[in-house]
Write a structure and sequence with these properties.
The complex is a heterodimer of chains A (250) and B (575). Chain A is 38% helix and 25% strand. Chain A is an alpha/beta fold and 250 residues long. The chains are: A alpha/beta (250), B mainly alpha (575).
């Protein structure tokens, strides 16, 4: 069996007196969609940003495809495609310019860039806006463009931070299909979300994080079994994360 | 491990190409408003270059007529101007590097791509050089032209000056980047405000000490009275240490004007090798410090924000308890959001730093004007008017950068403000009065202090302080009125809003307004100084015309933009 594409070892991040991620150990295998669940402020985005090298861990290590993200950053980043929660886009570039920019940075030949770009633009219904400036794009169009850019180099690992925000139902379904197809072809997906339904639909394995600690790690059926005892999956999630149910009198 | 030049070249080329495309698209966007931009561009060129050229021509040609001391004095003055430029370049590079290389969201994007850190740093350094030096190039252009004219230099002089300028703008950028890199990597957490304050204080203290220590002695007024040229020239040796790049530039310019190839090459090499060394030091330190520093500036401790429950803000809130609740609420919100936004802060600190440098320089100007006054009649009055114009110019930059974008920034929050039981215009008027009071509180002490340093008389003190208060009203009206007329709700970066079409229009209208007011005041005062005005009916009519024009222009600038802005704001649709 090949080595896991993602290896988090004793990963810790401390901001001042706040422990955002607390000694996290986690592997993600090739061909797997891994959903990282947790309430707001649990440490999901901090973990992903450490995985991409955007934040330096206070302690522990991150290996992507066997490369240490701190020591071998270029090699590790070459293997991943990242969709941040608030992506940065150049307003005065057209969608095509932006894809060429990202493609050139990753040294993909232009004809291949065009081919892959148009495939995804057709899929997302973005072809008509290929030469429009990004400043005129709606939130959903921007999100689709970011997906296209992240998928352009056919990365082995896709890192998604809350990817469904702002997408229409059709695009959301396409993204879920892309995740499954990517895993089916041997790639891996690390998906951070707080939407239980999305995780249920696409994930092979689920990790739940609360207050920086991994409090559940297992397959979906294991979670479902525990869910039956607790009620719905939502009830189980709230129970595990220690969140108050938030019931209001009707 | 440092990346090899081969691995850097391809991503560097890609990023620079994208930047070029972005620039092209900006220009293409301007095409639809071409006439306005042409008008704005020509206006700025006319005011800055034309005005500067007229001033330096008049000064240099006047000085050149007084052999043998005049030309020497001209060289020393040019050196002092270069020293002021160099200080400003270092300071602006420090702040620009901090905001573009460490705080900018664009760096997040690069960091997530397989782009070597050296490439990211280089791109941002180039941007820093461009952003910080264009003003120097614009402002120094008339100086070089006037200097070349005064010395009767040929076209090669201007080509050689261009060669000197390149390393002169790169060196402070390299030094600024180096210092930012070191400090960012050493400070333990997100301390942008502290960082900029430290930079500002270090530079100002260093600048003041350097000015005191590096050559020259304070000028005794007796020396001027007794025509003691040796002592006067000794005073003008301020900033003539051979360690200062401004001296290298001064000597290089002199050598270029005199056609001394050997001396020119020597001074050019001094500048070029120092600039290259500063870049090489950056290149050596990038692998060890850049990523570390960038990560540290993004480590923000979670938890309650300082002052959210008590402290300074609560104290200010208590002091403002006499104001109506809505005004107080807007004020409280504006204060807190401003204080907690490091990008706003860094630029304000930069402007205050420039103000402090200005005060230091005005001290020198006061003493120089005493020397130059021997050659050019009533030069102290010219400097006093120049000081008035400069203060208003600084104010126009502040209103464009901080006041003009303020209404655009409200657009995204209009779901909260717009649905409150208030008249829509309340927010516009709140901005107007707060900004005017802030402008007066900042500019009046500056005006009084610089007037005292210059030793102007009571009439000039009264005229200049009243003028600043009235012009502050006009500039605030322009910035708030145009802000309401041409809001940009899509952008949340105030610097970008200020750089847009409306912001540019605000700059040019502000400069035209200041220029017209200053001219209408200066011309009669100067003619009176030179004894060319009498009490005949012609001059009485001429005076009445000037006063009427002054009142009319100021009334129009104070009233019209606000009236138009308020009308537009009332009808605005927040889509």
């Amino acid at each position: 069996m090949s080595a896991p594409i993602v290896q988090l070892r004793n990963l810790t991040k401390v901001f001042g007196s706040n422990i955002a991620v607390d000694h996290l150990d986690l592997d993600v295998e090739a061909g797997e969609v891994f959903a990282f669940l947790g309430p707001n402020g649990a440490g999901k985005t901090t973990t992903i940003r450490m995985m991409t090298g955007l934040i330096r861990p206070t302690g522990g290590e991150v290996f992507i495809g066997g490369f240490d993200i701190q020591g071998r950053a270029i090699e590790a980043k070459s293997l991943m495609g990242y969709i941040p929660d608030h992506p940065y886009l150049y307003e005065k570039l057209s969608a095509r310019d932006f894809i060429h920019f990202v493609g050139d940075l990753r040294q993909i030949p232009r004809p291949l860039q065009e081919e892959r770009m148009m495939d995804h633009f057709d899929l997302f219904g973005l072809s008509h806006a290929a030469d429009h400036l990004i400043e005129n794009f709606s939130h959903g169009m921007r999100q689709k463009l970011v997906f296209t850019a992240a998928l352009l180099h056919r990365p082995r690992l896709l890192l998604f931070d809350e990817p469904m925000v702002g997408l229409d139902p059709k695009s959301a379904r396409i993204i879920k299909q892309i995740m499954r197809r990517h895993a089916g072809r041997g790639g891996s997906v690390f998906l951070s979300t707080h939407q239980l339904a999305v995780a249920e639909e696409v994930a092979d394995r689920i990790g739940i994080i609360a207050k920086g600690q991994l409090i559940f790690l297992g397959r979906l059926d294991e979670l479902r079994q525990r869910g039956r005892a607790a009620g719905t999956l939502e009830d189980l999630f709230l129970e595990l994360t220690g969140e108050p149910p938030g019931e209001i009198a009707v | 491990m440092a990346a090899s030049p081969q691995t850097l070249r391809a991503p560097l080329r890609t990023i620079l190409r994208a930047k070029w495309t972005i620039l092209g698209n900006h220009v293409a966007a301007i095409r639809s408003h071409f006439l306005i931009h042409l008008f704005v561009g020509l206006g700025v060129l006319f005011l800055l270059i034309g005005g500067g050229l007229a001033f330096f021509q008049w000064l240099f040609l006047g000085l050149m007529g007084f052999e043998p001391f005049g030309p020497l004095l001209m060289d020393r003055l040019t050196g002092l101007v270069f020293m002021a430029f160099f200080s400003m370049l270092v300071f602006s590079n420090l702040v620009i590097t901090l905001s573009t290389t460490y705080i900018s969201k664009e760096i997040d994007f690069y960091m997530a791509q397989p782009v070597p850190h050296a490439v990211t740093f280089t791109v941002k350094l180039v941007e820093s050089i461009v952003y910080s030096s264009w003003a120097f190039v614009m402002l120094s252009f008339p100086l070089f032209v006037a200097y070349g004219n005064a010395r009767g230099a040929g076209w090669t002089f201007y080509a050689l000056c261009a060669l000197l300028i390149v390393p002169f703008v790169i060196l402070p950028a390299g030094l600024g980047a180096l210092l930012t890199m070191i400090v960012s990597a050493l400070l333990p957490a997100r301390r942008s405000r502290l960082l900029t304050i430290l930079f500002g204080l270090a530079l100002l203290t260093g600048g003041a000490v350097a000015i005191r220590l590096m050559g020259g002695q304070p000028l005794a007024r007796q020396a001027v009275r007794e025509f003691d040229f040796a002592e006067m020239l000794n005073f003008l040796e301020v900033g003539s240490s051979p360690l200062l790049p401004s001296l290298w530039l001064r000597e290089g310019v002199l050598a270029a004007a005199q056609g001394d190839a050997g001396a020119f090459l020597f001074w050019w090499l001094m500048l070029a090798t120092s600039a290259m060394m500063s870049l090489q030091l950056c290149a050596w330190l990038i692998p060890a410090l850049f990523y570390r520093g960038w990560c540290l500036t993004h480590d923000s401790p979670a938890g309650p924000t300082a002052g959210s429950r008590g402290g300074v803000f609560a104290a200010v809130d208590r002091c403002l308890a006499w104001l109506p609740l809505t005004t107080r609420t807007f004020l409280a919100k504006d204060m807190r959001t401003f204080w907690r936004d490091p990008s706003q802060w860094s630029q304000l600190i930069m402007l205050f730093g420039l103000l402090a440098l200005y005060i230091v320089n005005i001290r020198n100007a006061a003493q120089q004007s005493a020397v130059i006054g021997l050659f050019v009649g009533r030069f102290q009055h010219v400097i006093a008017f120049f000081n008035l114009g400069s203060t208003c110019f600084i104010l126009s930059i502040l209103t464009t950068r901080f006041v003009y974008p303020s209404l655009s920034l409200e657009g995204r929050q209009f779901w909260a403000v717009g649905l409150a039981p208030l008249r829509r215009e309340a927010v516009v008027w709140e901005k107007y009065w707060v900004c005017w009071i802030a402008a007066v509180l900042m500019c009046e002490p500056l005006m009084v202090l610089s007037n005292l340093i210059l030793g102007v008389g009571g009439t000039m003190m009264l005229v200049s302080t009243v003028t600043v208060a009235v012009i502050a009203l006009g500039l605030t009206s322009l910035a708030v009125g145009l802000g309401a007329l041409t809001p940009n709700f899509a952008e949340d970066n105030p610097a970008r809003i200020a750089n847009g079409l409306g912001g540019t229009l605000n700059v040019i209208l502000s400069l035209l307004y200041i220029g017209a007011t200053a001219l209408l005041m200066f011309v009669p005062a100067r003619l009176a100084d030179l004894g060319q005005i009498d009490t005949s009916p012609y001059w009485q009519r001429w005076g009445a015309f000037h006063i009427a024009a002054l009142v009319l222009i100021n009334a129009a600038v104070i009233a019209v933009p606000m009236a138009l802005g308020l009308r537009r704001w009332r009808r605005m649709e927040f889509v």
